[in-house]
């Protein structure tokens, strides 16, 4: 009897959430797409999440698992992951819907979270980190290191960079995005000018259990700048000569008189 009363009390506490449902249904729906056989299906993920840890609120938007934007709730604006997406990030037409999602998510945490505390196991994923360059490696030329973090759940992490075991300042923001299966991935960027003796490390700390993943990067198989330029010039020259030869052959072929039967 006492258990049933507790369940009834929990349901009564959830009733105030029902007033939000008509508003959520009132959000305009996108027109139904007309699919053709020659078109491929693509996935656009608009994922809102909230949690007790940091960050307490998040929104990510991805196209076929490639993140486009995350939402900075302190400034109420989209932040593009790449400069090419900056113009699209200025669109604010859906700001009311985003603020509604934020309020709804926070109320769910406040109203339902305490009722489920200790009753549902906490799902965790140990993050996996790897580091690579954004462009082909050339010593002495500016480049960007990318720290890619996968198998992340919940999305509570801090990312720090070190150069020869010394902390590095000036890294960009950490972009967190959702992927299929309700897990998350993250990207952190660091602008560098690589040298042969460099040793960089990306240190990822999972805040929920203080688990730490470390990925190292050292220069490998770099092409000297002058060698790369010579190789590209040689390839371009070879293609030019080949084009001239093919052109001459075609001219001779089409100018040859046709033999009569």
TrEMBL record:
Organism of derivation: Cercocebus atys
Family in the record: Belongs to the MHC class II family.
Topology in membrane: Single-pass type I membrane protein
UniProt protein name: Major histocompatibility complex, class II, DM alpha
Domain Ig-like: 121-215
Lineage, uppermost ranks: Eukaryota, Metazoa, Chordata, Craniata, Vertebrata
Subcellular location: Membrane
UniProt cross-references to InterPro entries, sorted A to Z: Ig-like_dom, Ig-like_dom_sf, Ig-like_fold, Ig/MHC_CS, Ig_C1-set, MHC/Immunoglobulin, MHC_I/II-like_Ag-recog, MHC_II_a/b_N
Main location, first listed in the record: membrane
GO biological process assignments: adaptive immune response; antigen processing and presentation of peptide or polysaccharide antigen via MHC class II
Bilayer-spanning residue ranges: 234-254
Signal sequence segment: 1-26
Gene3D superfamilies (alphabetical): Class II Histocompatibility Antigen, M Beta Chain, Chain B, domain 1, Immunoglobulins
One cellular component (GO) term of this entry: MHC class II protein complex
Keywords: Adaptive immunity, Disulfide bond, Glycoprotein, Immunity, Membrane, MHC II, Signal, Transmembrane, Transmembrane helix
């Amino acid at each position: 009897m006492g258990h049933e009363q507790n369940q009834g009390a929990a349901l009564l506490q959830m009733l105030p959430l029902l007033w939000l449902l008509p508003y959520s249904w009132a959000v305009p729906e996108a027109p139904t797409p007309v699919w053709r056989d020659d078109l491929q299906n693509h996935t656009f993920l608009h994922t809102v999440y909230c949690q007790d840890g940091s960050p307490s609120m998040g929104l990510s938007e991805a196209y076929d698992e490639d993140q486009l934007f995350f939402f900075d709730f302190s400034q109420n604006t989209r932040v593009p992951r790449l400069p090419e997406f900056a113009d699209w990030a200025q669109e604010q037409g859906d700001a009311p819907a985003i603020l509604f999602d934020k309020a709804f998510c926070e109320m769910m945490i406040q109203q339902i979270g305490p009722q489920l505390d200790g009753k549902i196991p906490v799902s965790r994923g140990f993050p996996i980190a790897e580091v690579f360059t954004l462009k082909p490696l050339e010593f002495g030329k500016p480049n960007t290191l990318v720290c890619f973090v996968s198998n992340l759940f919940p999305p509570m992490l801090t990312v720090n960079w070190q150069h020869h075991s010394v902390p590095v300042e000036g890294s960009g923001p950490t972009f967190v995005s959702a992927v299929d299966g309700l897990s998350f991935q993250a990207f952190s960027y660091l602008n560098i000018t690589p040298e042969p003796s460099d040793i960089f490390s990306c240190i990822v700390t999972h805040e929920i259990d203080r688990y730490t993943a470390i990925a190292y990067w050292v220069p490998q198989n770099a092409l000297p700048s002058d060698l790369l330029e010579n190789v590209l010039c040689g390839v371009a020259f070879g293609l030019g000569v080949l084009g001239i030869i093919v052109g001459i052959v075609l001219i001779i072929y089409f100018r040859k008189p046709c033999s009569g039967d």
